[in-house]
């Protein structure tokens, strides 16, 4: 073959290969962009369907001005209610089965989670007396629960997300399930109250939505504190799965289930701001626990909180929300200054 003709043929093939690669790259980019636009529009519609403002509550009374997720330190109360489509309960006879308060620090892009046991004995403003915090929801829905949590933890609750059993199950299933550590062999009822319908073995397990709900709800094998820790662990597992690269294609399924069984006072723009927390990977998440003890002195079971532990958690949350100086870091700085200038301190005395 003529060498000149061979070089020309080889060059033509090379140009053709480059064209094919570029065409594929452009096609993928267009498809990816189209899918992204489709997801955003779908998410916006779902967020609109889930949005529910709280009457007579533009912002928390513990705030001097309204906050925004994109710029400020905020808090979100996750309310899991013991309701489903099969149960068909109204808000007046529905109780909160799980309460987790999340505080988000905008500068650190960090999150703190604290679980509040359902039988926690606390003052319920709408009732005018102390009772189990699970009963607060029956007075005025999310508003009563929010006010009770603010009374208990002495921090503002800026936003809430309320979901029933169906929403929780659907979200986990839409993500393809989650990995979680089951602390012991257990048998638990399912979301339809069918006894011993869920059976799990001890160890790291891949759980579907019904199994994850059973693990979060069970109360027969340990206490309310451990139950709260399990709920925090499951919430973190859902976050890990949602932020994993392999879950991008599942976002459409997740979005579909959100609008039907979840309500929140977060707008679509508010929700978009949370992507800032995931830009550098999974945000730093710390779980907190308020110590307490069982109380049957009145003949009714309550979970009474340890006052010293409660005050400590209140301080941590208030500092994380920028409502007060971080006293722990101030103390460390003071000790450092004293160590650096011992002679000066002795002279001044």
Secondary structure layout plus pairing:
Elements: H1 3-50, E1 74-81, E2 96-105, E3 110-115, E4 121-124, E5 129-132, H2 137-140, H3 142-153, E6 159-163, H4 165-174, E7 178-182, E8 186-188, E9 198-200, E10 203-207, H5 209-217, H6 224-243, H7 251-261, E11 262-264, H8 268-273, E12 284-288, E13 292-295, E14 302-305, H9 307-320, H10 327-340, H11 342-348
Parallel strand pairs: 1-6, 3-12
Antiparallel strand pairs: 1-2, 2-3, 4-5, 6-11, 7-10, 8-9, 13-14
Helix pairs in contact: 1-7, 4-5, 4-7, 5-6
Summarize the structure.
It is built from eleven helices and 14 strands. It is of the alpha+beta class and 349 residues long.
Describe the structure.
The protein is an alpha+beta fold. Helix content is 44%, strand content 20%. The protein contains 11 helices and 14 strands. It has helices at residues 3-50, 137-140, 142-153, 165-174, 209-217, 224-243, 251-261, 268-273, 307-320, 327-340, 342-348; strands at residues 74-81, 96-105, 110-115, 121-124, 129-132, 159-163, 178-182, 186-188, 198-200, 203-207, 262-264, 284-288, 292-295, 302-305. The chain has a 6-stranded mixed beta sheet with strand order 11-6-1-2-3-12, sandwiched between helices. β13 and β14 (302-305) form a beta hairpin. α4 packs across α5 (209-217) and α5 (209-217) packs antiparallel against α6. The model is unreliable at 26-33 and 330-349 (pLDDT under 50).
